[in-house]
Each structure stands twice: as C-alpha cells, then as structure tokens.
Amino acid sequence: MMPPITFVLPLYTTFSGFGLLNNPLTLVAVYCTMLIPFASWLMKANIDVLPVEVEQAAAIDGAGTFTTLTQVVLPMARPALLATGMLCFLIAWDEFFYALIS
C-alpha cells in the first residue's frame, strides 16, 4: 500500500526504455496493474459475506459450479460489482499524473 507517486520514476524509465511513452496501452497497463489488486480485495470482501446456504441449496438442486456462479452468486453480488466498477473508474479518472507523464 504505497502512494502512486512513488511509482512514477520507475514507470517512466521503464516505459521510455521500451519506447512506450505517449501510448494509450501504457496507461491501460498502468491502471490495470494499479486497480486489479484493489478490485480483487474489494470483491473478495463482498463475496465473503454472501450466505453459503444459498450456494448449498443450488448444489442440492443439481446446479453445477458454473451454474451456481452465474445464476446464484453473481446476481447477489451485482451491487458489489457495480460499486467496485464505479470506484475503479473514479480512481483511474482522478489519477491524472500517470497520464501526464506517460
């Protein structure tokens, strides 16, 4: 958990060495690298509080793992998915400094 400003110099030297400055894919890589751990942590915390009994009931009814995930867990986790998506978007939107140096 370090502030994003600490990564500016290493990112700039790395991307300039590879010739990837002024490239939109560079920003995509930086933002994904920065936001995927945050999103994973937030989604794990939200999925852990979902009731296990509902998944067990789906298994008793004969639903497989994929069906349980898509038909039971994801609809219950939809508010968490939307909140995580909105937070990640806002974090990336507010982080102008990486776009300025890339």
Order of helices and strands: HHHHHH
Residues in β-strands, percent: under 5%
| Structural class assignment | mainly alpha
Count of helix runs: 6
Amount of helix:
over 70%
The overall pLDDT average reads 91
Tell me, what's the shape?
elongated
Distance separating the two termini: 22 Å
Report the radius of gyration as a whole number of Å. 19 Å
Task: Explain how this protein is built.
The chain is mostly helical and 102 residues long. The protein is 77% helix and 0% strand. It contains six helices and no strands. The protein has helices spanning 8-17, 24-48, 52-60, 65-76, 78-94, 96-101. The radius of gyration is 19 Å and the shape is elongated. It starts with 7 loop residues before the first helix and ends with a helix. The mean pLDDT is 91.
Structural descriptors:
single chain, 102 residues, mainly alpha, 6 helices
In short:
The protein has 102 residues and is mostly helical. The protein has helices at 8-17, 24-48, 52-60, 65-76, 78-94, 96-101. The two termini are 22 Å apart.
Helices and strands in order, then pairings?
Blueprint: H1 8-17, H2 24-48, H3 52-60, H4 65-76, H5 78-94, H6 96-101
Helix pairs in contact: 2-5, 3-4
